[in-house]
Amino acid sequence: MKNKHYDVIVVGLGSMGSAALYHLAKSGLKVLGIEQFSISHDQGSHHGETRIIRFAYDEGMHYVDMALAARELWQDLERQSGEKIYHPIGGIYIADPEHGRFVDNPIKVAQTYKFEHEIIRGDQINARFPAFNLPKNFHAFYEPASGYLLSELGVETHVKQAEEYGAEVISNAGVRAINPGPQTEVITDKHAYTADKVIVCAGAWSSKLMPELSKAITISRNVVCWFKPDSSTEIFNPDKMPIFILSDENGAAYGFPDCTGGGVKIGIHDEFSPTEIDTVNRTVSDEDKTRIRRYADKYFNLAGAKIIDSSVCLYSMTPDKDFIIGAHPKHDNIFIAAGFSGHGYKFSPVIGQILKNLAVGADVEFDLSPFSPARFMD
Asked: Catalytic: which of 54, 117, 265, 328?
């Protein structure tokens, strides 16, 4: 029996794959999306309710225009679907005096792009946002357009809208092999399919599926916790508390107000714990919770607050922390999106659009050279 053939197959329907599927289907192509788990699952990098969206991006100026384009595409998706995904409640970057560059660098970006912003001290933050309990000598950069995205809803909405444009979706089907050729074959544990083009968005499973990425990606286990305030719960509501990124002598923490009624979410961004995808410890230990609780007790009015939930999230880290986006160096009809290094979700709609343009041979308006797969692949 001849394999069913498509214009494009998307392998992996998480953050980037769901967006790519949507843009491909919207373009009128015959597309198939394959997901090894259910749509919007808790095994990868997009679960846990929320992700930060910000624009004064000090990780590199090449990200700023992409972040602005992503915001427009999130808003387009909202208008089309009727869902509310992007919540611009404001965002604050906070640093102690010894780590001022984590505030100063975003300020420079905001000034260059003329973004609306404010520069404020720790005591001013406490007065304005009483959820915080910061030392007076801390300083901060406030960006009103920052906020949060409902991450699982974003994935689900991209897939749903793709299906409305005619995309076929197969879930709970693991991909066992991708065999390159003029018509590339994708073999799952259920069936085999062929396509003119294949886009691989396999997240933490990328190097398992494509061993040539093994030098490019390290999987990191990261933990987040949700805290239930003992009192004055209203000060932790999204209309009273912005999202935050906080840097001190111990590293960088980030978090969210009580966006959905499930508590105040706090995680540690740069405490990387390398692991293997098949042996990830998905149990949150007391030690994990203690490290995160230190931030809750020290910098917020959450001392003694109960941890009501916790979760393990996976980062796919590249050596330079830049993404991998582009054509496979040896197979020009296979495209890769991987290695988003803990800061990719906000970009997913624009990366989906970029992947669509690459697949159909259309112009891409962004410089993709910092993201070239060839920088890591032999």
From this structure: 265
- The one catalytic residue in 184, 225, 313, 318 is 313
Catalytic site residue from 23, 51, 139, 356? 51
Active site residue 313: yes
Phi and psi torsions of 362, nearest 5°: -85, 165
The closest alpha carbon to 175, from 8, 36, 323, belongs to 36
> Is 346 an annotated catalytic residue?
yes
- Considering only CA atoms, give the Rg of the chain: 21
What pairing do the DSSP bridges indicate for beta strands 243-248 and 324-328? unpaired
- CA separation for the pair 26, 12 (Å, rounded): 18
Measured CA angle at 119 (ends 91, 94), to 5 deg: 50
User: Which residues, 6+ apart, have CB-to-CB distance to 231 below 8 Å?
Assistant: none
47 in active site: yes
Give all strands (DSSP E) within the chain, no chain letters: 4-11, 31-34, 50-53, 86-87, 91-95, 118-121, 139-143, 147-150, 168-170, 175-179, 184-188, 192-200, 218-228, 243-248, 251-256, 264-268, 274-275, 306-317, 324-328, 331-338
Reference 161, options 354, 349, 359; nearest CA is 349
Q: Does residue 265 sit in helix, strand or coil?
A: strand
1 pLDDT above the threshold of 70? no
158 assigned to active site: no
CATH assignment at residue 203: 3.50.50.60
What confidence tens digit (pLDDT) does each residue in 29-87 have? 999 999 999 999 999 999 999 999 999 998 888 999 999 999 999 999 999 999 999 99
Domain span including residue 134: 91-144+218-317
Shared domain for 240 and 300, answered yes or no, is yes
Q: Which of 299, 317, 335 is the last residue of a domain?
A: 317
